[in-house]
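If you are new to this repository, start here. Below is one unmodified record pulled from the training split, so you can see the exact layout before writing a loader.
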Amino acid sequence: MQLSDYLDPDLFIYDLKGRDKSGVLLEMLSHLREKFSDLDPEKAHEILLERENLGSTGIGDGVAIPHGKMEELKNIVVIVGRSEQGVDFAALDTKPCHIFFLVLAPEDVAGQHLRILAQISRLLKDPGFRRDFIEAEDPRAFRELLKSI
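And here is the target side for that same chain:
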């Protein structure tokens, strides 16, 4: 299982416009409507905010990995976003987040879900990758970077 197996270029957002946690989550989830018409983005938003209330998924170094489980899903979905201005995501280091990997998983794949979160976390520990992610000069460069993982 490779992280790249779960990355879909239709779910890459080069320039997030959301200014707060809820806005970023809604913006990222809006892309699901186009790809998965049977999935309810509002319900997904509620699930993600419930998870955020347990503790922020802003892990520091400009990174947030919001995640949750939805029984309606058949497969794990990963949405990737970049915020040039940064968003207060209540990160552990209190710095704004620029890098977002949102993960939604079916209820019955806990082990796989955790492995994907671990792969994302390992990838984002690399300062070079984080720098390249934030400094991607245009959507094409952003997509190429994500295709390389």
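Two things worth knowing about this chain: The chain has one domain: 3-147. The first strand starts at residue 7 and ends at 13.
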